[in-house]
Amino acid sequence: MYPPPPPPLPRTRPPALILAVTIAYGMCAAALLANIWTIAATGAPGRPGADALYDMGADADVIDSYQSGAAVGMLLALIIIAAYILLASFVLAGRNGARVGMWILAGLDLLCSVITLMLRAPGGQAGQYIDTNAVLDAEAAARPFPLRVFDDTWILLEPALVIVIVVLLALPSVGEHLRRRTYTPPPITWQRPH
Fold this sequence. Notes:
With about 190 residues, this protein is mainly alpha-helical. It has helices spanning about 15-40, 45-55, 60-90, 95-120, 130-140, 145-170, 170-180. Helix 2 runs antiparallel to helix 3 (about 60-90). Keywords: Membrane, Transmembrane, Transmembrane helix.
């Protein structure tokens, strides 16, 4: 019969792991506050842009599609925020699978950032009479100045922070900490009866 296993030694988390999770939590808090502030300032996702499209004489289908796209974009952002919080919590708890999940989520997040940058690129026409710059200007004008500054900064800062998280989670100290440790019982020694 084996003796009961000894209590596990407390493992200290590597600083890189703590920093990666802290950055993820900070990103989520900033993005959530910005989304709440945007809805409070504009009333609904995409409303100022839809008003600009209406002023340009766009069809009702185009306006509805724009507002639906803005709402889906906001919902996607909230899902990504929730996924970051959940996965960061699991990484902090020592789950290696959550680290892989964070890498996958980071890739999707970077893809969303690239798409957002492409949509915000200056110039371009969507159809024969829709000026995308006017729609983006209307969206920007509806937001308070501090929120506009945050949005313009965030569109460049957020991908950089995501890359920092990926690199920190890929460090050997984090990988070693998150690997499963199995218990090996001590060898049984036979003692001669007296």
